[in-house]
Amino acid sequence: MNFLRVATLTTALLLSLGCGVQAQTTLRIGLGEDPDILDPTLARTYVGRIVFAAFCDKLFDIDEKLNIVPQLALSHETSGDGKEVTIKLRPGVKFHDGEPFDAEAAKYSLERHLNFPASFRKPEIASLDHVEVVDPLTVKLILKNPYSPLVAQLADRAGMMVSPKAAKEAGDKFGLKPVCAGPYKFVERVQQDRMVFEKFADYWNKDNVFIDRLVYQPIVDATVRLANLKSGGLDLIERLLATDIKDVRADSRLKLSSALWLGYMGITLNIGNDKNKGPLSQSAKVRQALDFAIDREAINQVVYNGEFVAGNQWVNPEHPYYQKAFPVRPRDLAKAKALLKEAGVTTPITVDLMVPQDPETQAVAQVIQSMASEAGFDMKIRVTEFATSLKQAEAGEYQAYLLNWSGRLDPDGNAYVFLKSKAPQNYSAYLNTDVDKAMDDARMVSDLGQRKAIYEKMTKQVIEDEPIIYISHRKVLIAHTARLEGYRQMPDGLVRVIGLKLK
Fold first, then answer.
1. DSSP category for residue 329
2. Which domain holds residue 135?
3. What's 202's domain CATH number?
4. What is the DSSP string of 198-209?
5. The domain spanning residue 458 has which CATH number?
């Protein structure tokens, strides 16, 4: 009898421990790449933004309908002349190191984004002159000139707040152990293997955080990511291949979440920095001919199973700033050949097409290669590791570059850094003073109708000059276990963890 009692107690204890282990929930997320530095001031990768969404709250966020909503800020008000923006902050917020988030901390973070050496946020908030502390929970942003995209920028990395104490102590090493004010706090990072975060007990919205631990794992191969999801090694994966949608929908253990992306895929053409002076860089007619040789809808059907959206602008056709006066043109092979004849070039025209190391992008490149050959282009595909391709683009070591841009809420975020002369991501080295003026003018007004009219003239010019041939707008495709409840997909592609539960 004593033996039976001990056995029963032991079994009960083991069951109790087992329940305790099960209560410690971990969400394992598969990423397409390993992010760069986890410092919102210095970071530049799309996957980095996915990770930041879990641990580095912003002043503002967006919802499914592209509305700007409060996060660490409660409200904002812009002065009549557009040069002052007053922001009310959320009370009772703490950073992961226990330091309070207040107006002084907001001022520090914004000025760090603006002034820190090699900051990638500086171009996004360059119109900001300085920040004034009005009271402990109010800051006033003083601008050099009106800047309508500002609040939209503060709904992204430029609006992420960092602990002043931790940032001052770490300097440029802050990204090795970042301290923010999000729902999860940093635990560890092993490059190319994992990033681990645990629930922050003092988070301002802790009642809506239900998962204890997050583990992000970079897995470059999308097929391997999906296999890990199916086997239970992962709970959620980003950038599911469009060709795998049917497979996920057929699996009762999995769910699919999607939204039309804010970004685009396009072919950036080296106009002003082409050391070989090829025909593409020397003639707009040659660039237009390449455009007319491409069948965007055929690419969508062949590579993406018809799931994506063909496009010809830096915003998608569902975006409020899309210019309907310039719809996607159908493929016109005769027009392409006629333009090449008018340009007086000898065919076939050899083109160095740089393509990041990604199966879907490579498949698009192969379809474009085939289509372009019929018009008189010999596209030489050069597959390049992504970070290396960015460096070569900056150096002008390419002629055409097939690239995905993750997109921003405001149209300025999809155009200015790529099309403005001497802008940091103007890989085309494109220069058009009328386009420059249009982008600057659009930043000065906030009325949608006025801005859209400015962008209409700019769109006409960019389509004629063709520094970038816009191809398509992908859908954000997130696959996850059916055990995950409460997941909602936003158009920016980020994975938000608030409200998520694992059954």
1. P
2. 57-163
3. 3.40.190.10
4. EE-TT-TTGGG-
5. 3.10.105.10
Residue 19: exposed, middle, or buried by beta-carbon count in 10 A (0-12, 13-18, 19+)?
exposed
Comparing CA positions, the residue from 245, 280, 247, 250 lying closest to residue 430 is 280
Rg (CA), the chain: 25
CB–CB of 60/161 below 8 Å?
Answer: no
Question: The tokens of 352 are what?
Answer: 């160095």
Residues 277 and 232 both lie in one domain: no
The span from the CA of 484 to the CA of 482, in Å, is: 5
Residues 74, 134 share a domain: yes
pLDDT tens digits for 383-441? 999 889 989 999 999 999 999 999 999 999 999 999 999 998 999 999 999 999 999 99
| Segment 321-354, tens digit of pLDDT | 999 999 999 999 999 999 999 999 999 999 999 9
In this structure, is residue 170 part of a structural domain? no
* Same domain assignment for residues 100 and 188: no
For 420, counting Cβ atoms within 10 Å of its Cβ (0-12 exposed, 13-18 middle, 19+ buried), the class is: buried
Measured distance CA(100)–CA(193) in Å, rounded = 32
Report the largest interatomic distance among the alpha carbons of the chain, rounded to a whole angstrom.
101
Q: Give the helix/strand (H/E) hosting 331.
A: none
Here the tokens at position 103 are 């107006």
Residue 8 inside a domain? The answer is no
Is the link from the previous residue into 218 a cis peptide, with omega within 30 of 0? no
- Asked if residues 280 and 270 have their Cβ atoms less than 8 Å apart, the reply is yes
Put simply, whether the predicted model's pTM sits higher than 0.85 gets the answer yes
Residues 235 and 312 in one domain: no
Report the domain count for the chain.
3
Together in a domain, 187 and 329: no
Cβ neighbours of residue 477 closer than 8 Å, sequence gap 6 or more: 238, 239, 240, 241, 242, 245, 256, 258, 307
327 Cβ contact list (under 8 Å, min separation 6): 312
